[in-house]
Each structure stands twice: as structure tokens, then as C-alpha cells.
Amino acid sequence: MGKSSHAISGVFVFMLLGIFAIFSTIMVLLSAKAYRGVVDKAAMHNSMRVASSYIRTMLRSDDESGVLRIEDAEGVQTITMENDYGDIYVTRIYVYDGKLREWFAMKEIPFLPGNGETVCDLDSMDAEISDGLLKVKLEENGEEMEVYFAPRSAAPRGEE
Fold it and tell me: How many domains does the chain have?
């Protein structure tokens, strides 16, 4: 009777270890999935914060009378700022191919949306000017954020 009780207790110990290993693996997999969800959500919010900060910074840096307008260029809505640095240069902020982009070039250079510098991931941007206030609606993975900008220098030129 002594040998069979040791065999049963040995099997019981191995079963407990097996169950512990299985539950430990399940916990690691569930934790990894939860962590991935948190990281993805943080990355999405980070893109929205980067996009809104970038747009505000660009608008503040070009806050001059008559510089700002919203336009459609090559089928893409852009926030456009035109400056005279000896020659006329155009800065365009727009969303193309799932990315917030910036185009900075001389006015004579044809606008190619795919060639703009990528700022961050962003699904869409919708901008409008109303009563001297620029309203920009940003969207990334179903989340929306609105950015408002009131030029200090003078009212923007409006939609052209």
C-alpha cells in the first residue's frame, strides 16, 4: 500500500504543476492582449495630441494678416499658409493616405500630396473658417478631436 500512495501523490503533484502551468500561460496571453490594447489606445491618443499640437504650432508661427486659408488642392483639403520670403512660399497641412502631412515649397512648384512630409498617422481632417475662427476636426481610429484657432493678427481669408 505504501508504493501506490506514493504513485498517486506523485501524479497529483504533476497534475497540480500542469494545471498551474496552463493557467499561468493563459494569464500571460490575456495580459499580453490587454497590454497590446492599452499600447494601441495610447498610440492613437498620441497621434491625436501630436496632430493637434502640430497644427496649433504651425498656425501660431504663421499668424500674419491674410496668410491663412482653406482650399482644395489636387482633390485634397488643405490648410494653406502663403508667405513672402523674397519669393512666395506655400505651406500646406493636409491628410493624405492615412497620414497628416506638410508640404512646404515655392508657389510655382506643383502640389503633389504624396510628397509631403509625414507628421503622424491620422485618418481624416476637416477644416473650416467661420466668423474669423478656424475649426479643425481630426479623426483617428474612430476617435475625434476638434482644434480651434483664432488668429491674433487678423481674420483669415476664408475658403477659396
Answer: 1
